[in-house]
Known about the structure:
single chain
Amino acid sequence: MNAADTAFVLISAALVMLMTPGLALFYGGMVRGKNILGTLMHSNILLGTVTILWAIVGYSLAFGGDIGGFIGNLDFMFLKGVGTAAKEGVDNIPHLAFMIFQCMFAVITPALITGAFAERIKFSGFVLFTCLWLIVVYCPMAHWVWGGGWMAKMGALDFAGGAVVHMSSGASALAAALYLGRRHGYGKQAFIPHNLPLTILGAGLLWFGWFGFNAGSALAANGLAASAFVTTHLAAAAAAVSWIVVEWLHRGKPTTLGMASGAVAGLVAITPAAGFVEPMPAILMGLVAGALCYGGVLMKGVFKYDDSLDVVGIHGLGGTFGALATGLFATTAVNDAGANGLFYGNPGQLWIQFVSVVATWAFCFVMSLILFKVVDLMVGIRVSQDDENKGLDVSQHSEVGYQL
C-alpha cells in the first residue's frame, strides 16, 4: 500500500467527477435556452443514479470474477469485500479507491450519450434507459477490457476508455439519434447554441478533469502517469489547432465552438493511447483527430441523422481513430505492460485493435437499440411535439433557466 499512489488516485477520481458537471455545461451551452436545465439535468442526475447502481451491482459485474470472458460475478455486490485492503492485482492502493475511481468513469459515460438526444427525450425514459444501459452495456464493456474479459485476454490496448467510454457512448448515441428521430424543424430552422461561454467553460473543465481520467489510469503517481498526462495535453492542444485550421479553410472563420470541440476530439482520441504512446505520436494523433472529427460532424448533414451535439462525430469517430492509432504507435518503451504497435514492429496489434473496434460498435449499437425499444414500450422515450416546442425545462421539470 502506497500513500502517494492512494492520494493520487483519489484526486484523479475527484477530477473525473468534475468532468460530469463540466460536460453538462459543455452540452448545456449548445442547446436552445428553453432546454438548458433539462440538458444540465441529464448529466448531473447520473452522479446520483449511476453511483448507487455502481455500488450495488455495477462494480461487481464489471470487476468481479470473470464469467466466460463476458461479465463479472456478484462477489462484490453491495461492495462486499471492497474495503481498505488492496484489490487483487492492484496492490498499491485500497480497493475502495479503485472502486470509486472506476465509478466516476461509469457516471460520465452514459452522460456522453445524452448529447445525441438532447432537446427531445422524456426524462422518465432517459433515467430508465441509462440505468439499464449501465448494467447491460457499460458493465460488460468494462469487464471485457479492464476486468479480465475476452478483449483483455486477446491483448486489446485501451488505457483509459477508448472502447469502454468513447466508442460505447458513440455507438449508443448513433442508435439514439436513429431511434428517436430528428427534432421537429431539423433541417428547416437553425438550432443555434444559446450560450457559448458556458460551452467554453465546460470544455475547460473537461480538459482539466481529463488529466485525472488519463493520468489517473496509471493507478500510481509514477512515470507512466506523467507520460499519460503529457500525451493527453499535447493531443488536445494539437486537435484544437487542427480543427480550427480546417474549419477556417472550409467555412472562412475559426470559431470558439470549433476550438472547444477540437480539444475534446483530441482528448477522446488520445484516451486509449495515453499510457502507451510517446509525445510526438500524441501530437500527430491530435492533429489527425481534430481534422477527422470535424469531417465526422459534417457527415450528419450528409446522412440526415440528428445527433444534436455531435457525440457520434467526436466520441464515436474520435474513439475509433484513437483505438486504431494505438495499434500503430504503442510502444513498450513507454509501458512494458502494453505492446508494440505496427510502427514498432508488431502489425498484429493493429488487427487486435480493429477487432475490438468492430466488437464494441456492434455490441453497443445493437444493445442500445434494443434498450430504447424496451424503454419506449414501458414508459415512452420521446416527448410530444407540444412538449418539445415548449422546451424540456418547462415540460419535464416545470422550471426555466433564465428570468429575462
